[in-house]
Amino acid sequence: SAYPGVPAITNDDLLLERAMADYGQSYNEDVPVFELPRAPLLSVGALQHLLLVGERPFTVGNSWGQAGGWNALFDRFFFSGLTNEVALPDVGAGQPLPNTLLTVLPRRPDGSAVTALDLRAEVADGHAAFSSRYLLGRGAFNLNSVQPEAWMAVLGGTRYGANDRFTFLNATETTGTGGDAPGLPMTGPMSATFFRLAQSAGETFKAQPGKAGGLSGGFNPTPSVVANTHLFRCGLRVLTPPELSALATALAGRIGERQRLAGAFRSIQEFLDEGVIEQAIDEAHLNAGIAEFSSQWLTQGDVMTALAPVLFARSDTFLIRAYGDTLNPVTGELEGRAWCEAAAQRLPEYLDPAQVEETPPAALNPTNARFGRRFKIVSFRWLTIFDL
After folding, report:
1. What is the pLDDT of residues 113-156, one digit of tens each?
2. Which whole-number Å values give the CA distances from 64 to 7, 76, 213, 278, in the listed order?
3. pTM here?
4. Which residues pair with 311 in a beta bridge?
5. What whole-number distance in Å separates Cα of residue 155 and Cα of residue 74?
6. What pLDDT sits at residue 226?
7. In 3-state terms, what secondary structure has residue 387?
8. Among positive and negative, which fits the CA dihedral 121, 126, 130, 131?
9. Strand 135-137 to 102-104 pairing
10. CB atoms within 10 A of CB 355
């Protein structure tokens, strides 16, 4: 041992032997706090684990990220999941991207087909290439919604199916490592799950019964350990349907109140900096009696880890309805009426394709500065009075 009077490590199979003696060896006292990614990130919300010198832990996505402007990351960046270690999907055959909430634009502005290699190209049209020029989002949700039912639906998208439940590690006290036994089910079919440890929650597990206070059971007790380690050992928080409903209702109420006072949120950064999700969690009393900032203490950042890929401050697809009628010029009577509906979609390219998609607003030519991105009509139909 490097320390006089302290014995050497006695069991190097343990994840953490903090006391290097018989006491403190139980894995029940190991507390995972942060995680390193095991696979490509798919959510900007996962950056809450990023070490930012001089900042509080879990800065990205939480309200205290306001001071350093860190929540602007949600408006500026996204993760496709395409890295050099990930095989390119067969775009032509319809294979999905690792981030299944993104879809590939079928055609370039010149009409040629987009290929998987385009998504990784370093140079395109003589400029530095960005995959965003070829990608569209699907399943997007406007964070300015004031409908509790809509928030209930998007938050509930984190549910596991009845036959596809999340399982956590069923380790033994002998080793405290993986592969000891099959996983144990954690979630019910209607439970919503929000991960603190989005990629490594399966490697953590609840402390054994009777050891929530940190005592090591079969080893010598350690009364000085007072943390409820079972609250840290599970890398996700499960919300029951009533809890989920309370959160959705509180969120819709907070957003509606803000819109009445100051209008709609213009960016995700505004939404996060004001701590709207954080306030709704508090209003719904979801963290009552839970150790603060354990992995069971639900934070705004945890919710954003799940929602970041689908949450936006505005929509890129619009439903437009129009009405017209005809009056008899002599009698002034109404002789005919018509209603129509069109869906318009905003595309990545500018109206004037001479400027590439990544051109910043300050550098746009007069045409693109005035009209912006190109729109196309993706559907049109005539309506009857019964459609209104």
Report:
1. 888 888 887 777 667 778 888 888 888 899 999 999 999 999 99
2. 42, 19, 30, 11
3. 0.80
4. 141
5. 18
6. 47
7. helix
8. negative
9. antiparallel
10. 16
